[in-house]
Amino acid sequence: MAEALVDVLWFIEGSEDEQMDPDDAVKVLEGVAHLVSQLSNDQRSELIGLLGTMAEAESDPARREFLEGFPEGFGLVDAAV
Questions:
Q1: Can you tell me the distance from the alpha carbon of 40 to that of 60, in angstroms, rounded to the nearest whole number?
Q2: Cα separation of 45 and 24, whole Å?
Q3: How far apart are alpha carbons 81 and 77 in whole angstroms?
Q4: Would you tell me which of 7, 19, 22, 47 could form a disulfide with 15, CB atoms 3.0–4.6 Å apart?
Q5: What stretches of 1-81 show up as alpha helix (H) in DSSP?
Q6: Residue 81's pLDDT band (cuts 50, 70, 90)
Q7: Helix axes of 2-14 and 41-57: crossing angle, nearest 10 degrees
Q8: What is the dihedral of CA 70, 15, 63, 44, to 10 degrees?
Q9: In Å, what is the CA distance from 35 to each residue of 47, 54, 60, 78?
């Protein structure tokens, strides 16, 4: 499930304006940030761990950077501390 979510967010993040309306992209990204803010501490920790594992296994440097920045970018780090 988390991998599919990351795939969608990676697509949105990398989309050009011609591929996806920028306002719609922001709405989706903000919606996901809100949803992950609702996770319990255990769920946040589990997701952060999964993202770390995915980042370690990622061969694409740009996608690895996206995965490494995901917890902070979507408010998981601040919420878990």
A1: 30
A2: 28
A3: 6
A4: 19
A5: 2-14, 22-37, 41-57, 61-73, 76-80
A6: very low
A7: 70
A8: 20
A9: 12, 20, 27, 14
Residue whose token pair is 């917890």? 71
Q: What is the pTM of this model?
A: 0.81
Measure Cα distances from 63 to 11, 49, 66, 72 in Å: 10, 16, 5, 15
Q: Which two tokens stand for residue 47?
A: 């997701």
- Quote the CA–CA distance of 53 and 49 in Å, as a whole number: 6
If we measure between CA atoms, which residue out of 2, 16, 14 comes closest to residue 71?
A: 2
14-44, pLDDT tens digit by residue?
Answer: 888 888 999 999 999 899 989 988 999 999 9
Contact of 63 with 43, CB cutoff 8 Å: no
Joined tokens for residue 54: 């995915």
